[in-house]
Amino acid sequence: MPALYVVATPIGNLEDITLRALRTLKEVKLIAAEDTRKTRQLLNSYSIQTPATSYFEHNKLSKLDYIIERLKNEDVALVSDAGMPGISDPGYELITAVARLNIPVIVIPGASAIPAALAVSGLPTDSFLYLGFLPHKAGGRRRLLQSRVDERSTLVFLESPHRLMETLRDMLEILGDRQAAVCRELTKLYEEVFRGTLRQAAEHFTAPRGEFTLVVAGNTEAAPAVADAEIEQEIGRLKNSGVSAKEAIQKVSDETGLSRKELYRVWIKNKKGE
Length: 274
What we know:
There is one protein chain. The protein is an alpha/beta fold. The protein is built from 11 helices and 10 strands. The chain has helices at 19-27, 36-45, 64-71, 92-100, 113-121, 138-147, 161-175, 198-204, 229-240, 245-256, 260-272; strands spanning 4-7, 30-33, 52-54, 76-79, 105-108, 128-133, 154-159, 179-184, 192-197, 212-216. The protein has a 5-stranded parallel β-sheet with strand order 3-2-4-1-5, with helices on both faces. A 5-stranded mixed β-sheet has the order 6-7-10-8-9. Helix 6 links the parallel strand 6 and strand 7 (154-159). The longest helix has 15 residues, at 161-175. The relative contact order is 0.11.
């Protein structure tokens, strides 16, 4: 049965493509590409002759029917300019439409700026929140940053060079002078990873050029999230076993890092539910 192959392509260095991706791009009958000119450069580098059709932000809806019609009889690959299609790149609508028609969607993983930047950032990676490109206008950008002030996970953003300075200044003002890694032109000739505080980053990038991925430390001083159902169950189990409120709250607080005040609310809630 024909399938849609979602293929990751290099984010810079053309050698960062998998053997499976190359084989897939050779074997499919059509490649839906964000920019056929850029994709053709990649295809030419590996002597791949597969035809390509444009599928980008401004024609992604009008092209749906054409690509789905092709999928009725033959395999199609979806690629973006760089990295994984659908991740801050065109692809979401096509993947959703194809999946609803029960046509197989097969992912061919590979390069992505997000895990690459996280890996070299030197910041915690056990929990992170990817927020893509920040809003272009200052008001929207500042509101989004304000909504994430208490986020404890590491934050990851994409940004263009002409908005980088404004973004760093807004981050410094709203999030505070946190540790950050500003990754520029990852895997390309002029790759740069700057590690330091947001203030230091703003002072360093006085004339930014290239593509940027920003990794910013979470708010380690923020109160942990409200206890979930699992915590409530543990509080209830301890209470039912005869453990006092003080002992139960202290035990769960030590194990989870949740505040005793928040856990006391859970204890009271549990008690009212008897």
